[in-house]
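Ticket #4471: structure export looks truncated?
Reporter: QA, pipeline team
Priority: medium

Steps to reproduce: submit the single chain below to the structure queue and open the exported record.
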Amino acid sequence: MPVEDAAVIEGWLRERRGGTVRLHVPQRGEKRRLMEMVVENARHMLKERLAQEARRSEEAERAMAHLAEVLGLPSLPQRIEAFDISNIQGNQAVASMVVFEDGQPKPSDYRRFKIRTKSTPDDFAMMREAVYRRFLRGLREQAEEVEQRGFAAFPDLVLIDGGKGQLNAAREVMRELGVEDIPTVSLAKQFELVFVEGRPDPVNLPWASPGLKLLQRIRDEAHRYAITYHRHLRDQRTSESALDQIPGVGPRRKRELIKRFGSVAGVRRATVEELASVPGISRALAERIHQHLND
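Actual output as written to the record:
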């Protein structure tokens, strides 16, 4: 059983190991039987993986075809972008944009937005801002010759997390930017109703329908991505404020502490001696930091 590209494989393994590597193909005996069993298992796993991918592709095709039919889309929604807002009473508000292509997530195209709207908690204003920034950036990238064009590809369908109000907010800025021809729907959580602009009543997709399942999956992923980012910012702010409350720890010393220990949790775990070894931190200040964070 000859090994194709044996020299290439040996070279790659040699680089990984940092020493001589030689491939040996057993011709008889127990090692031969083990090798044949491994090859057969690998073929079986490959066959199963290909079958799973084929089934996944067929399911995605059915879901996209179903959405195109019930929503009256001009083509299959091969690229779907979903937006979600996460905030606690307007604090640390963020928006997420997730992308699915051919029914599968494409994390490399995911985007996150820190909401700049400073008004009282207003989900509609926050959604307007997120959608506006996404498409404004995309239009600029399409008009300019730039290397990074993460927003240049426009979706076949936009999915908004929320009800009719969130949908109207998104459509308002899309019309303002001249991208109103992109089909847009919203999915309300409570009854999983799909709202479409121009239709007086929501579309009530059957619970088991492939189209609704795909929309739910995308909406849930947008929610997960937004929540994860929101928690990160919230924890970061909480951690930073813990150091800000210590007399004698200004921005420069805080940077030095985080640089040395990685996080406020790392600073909390450090001993007084370790804290005092940081540039700008005296023994007295080290004791104060240790006491403040561990009381």
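Status: closed, not a bug. The export was complete when the record was re-opened. Leaving a note from the reviewer for reference: Strands lie at 79-88, 91-101, 104-105, 111-114, 157-161, 184-188, 193-196.
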